[in-house]
Write a structure and sequence with these properties.
alpha+beta; 9-stranded antiparallel β-sheet; Immunoglobulin-like
Length: about 230
C-alpha cells in the first residue's frame, strides 16, 4: 500500500489516509501503563496533526530504473464514520527538484474550473490551486510551494481549504498547522509502522460502521413494531 501510494504521488496524487499523525501513532503504540500515562500527559499538549513519509521511487515513466527520494508531509481530515477523506493538505518534495509542491485533495463533488484555494490564518487573500485530476478518493489540486508559503505554514495556526461544490455551496474546512514545521524538517516515520497504524485505524472505522448499521437496523425494527401496534 505504501509503495502504491508513492506511485500515485508521482503523478501528483495524495491518497495516504490519516486522521492525524498523533492518532496513527497512538493506535500503533503500546498499551502499557507507562505509555498510557504519557499519552494522558501528552493529551494536554497541542497534538501534531502532520506526518512525513518518504520513499525512493521512479518519478519518470521513461526511466523506471532511476529512483529518487520523494517525501510528503501531510495532514488529512477523515470522516470517522465513512472513512472518506474530507480534505488533505500536503507538501511534496522530490530529489533534484528546486521547489516543492503543495497538494490539496477534496471530495469529488466540486466545480473543477473554479479550482480550490488554501488560506493561512486570517490572510486577506487565499492561494489558488488548479485541479490536476480526480480519482476514486477525490480531486487533487496543486501549485508550486515557494519559500514564503512554507514559512507561512510553519508559523501559522491553521490552514483553510475552500472549494465550490456542484450545488454552488462553499465547501470549507480548517486544518491545524500544529507540528508542521518540525515534521517537515524532521525525519520521516517508519513506513511499516505507518502502514500498520493505518490498517488498525481503518479496522476501527469498519467496526464503527458495522455498529452504526446495527443501530439503524434496530431503530427501524422498533419503529416498525410501534407502527404495527398503533394500527392494531
Amino acid at each position: 500500500m505504501f509503495t502504491r501510494n508513492f506511485e500515485l504521488l508521482r503523478r501528483g496524487t495524495v491518497k495516504t489516509a490519516t486522521l492525524c499523525a498523533a492518532a496513527l501513532i497512538a493506535i500503533a503504540g503500546s498499551t502499557t501503563l507507562a505509555s498510557a500515562q504519557k499519552k494522558a500527559a501528552d493529551a494536554k499538549k497541542p497534538s501534531n496533526a502532520w506526518v512525513k513519509l518518504c520513499e525512493r521511487v521512479a518519478t519518470d515513466p521513461k526511466k523506471p530504473k532511476v529512483k529518487k527520494n520523494v517525501c510528503i508531509t501531510q495532514t488529512e481530515n477523515i470522516d470517522a464514520l465513512s472513512g472518506m477523506v474530507r480534505a488533505a493538505v500536503a507538501i511534496r518534495t522530490i530529489e533534484g527538484q528546486k521547489e516543492p509542491r503543495v497538494l490539496v485533495t477534496v471530495p469529488l463533488n466540486m466545480v473543477i474550473p473554479a479550482g480550490t484555494q488554501i488560506k493561512i490564518d486570517d490572510a486577506k487573500k487565499g492561494i489558488p490551486l488548479k485541479y490536476m485530476f480526480c480519482g476514486v478518493q477525490g480531486c487533487v489540486a496543486e501549485q508550486a510551494a515557494n519559500e514564503k508559503l512554507i514559512a507561512d505554514l510553519a508559523k501559522g495556526k491553521e490552514v483553510t481549504v475552500a472549494s465550490v461544490t456542484v450545488s454552488g455551496k462553499i465547501y470549507e474546512l480548517k486544518m491545524p498547522l500544529t507540528g508542521f514545521s518540525a515534521t517537515y524538517k524532521g525525519k520521516p516515520i517508519d513506513p511499516k509502522k505507518y502502514a500498520e497504524a493505518r490498517k488498525k485505524l481503518y479496522k476501527l472505522i469498519r467496526a464503527r460502521q458495522a455498529e452504526y448499521a446495527k443501530k439503524v437496523q434496530e431503530a427501524r425494527k422498533k419503529k416498525a413494531e410501534e407502527d404495527k401496534k398503533k394500527k392494531n
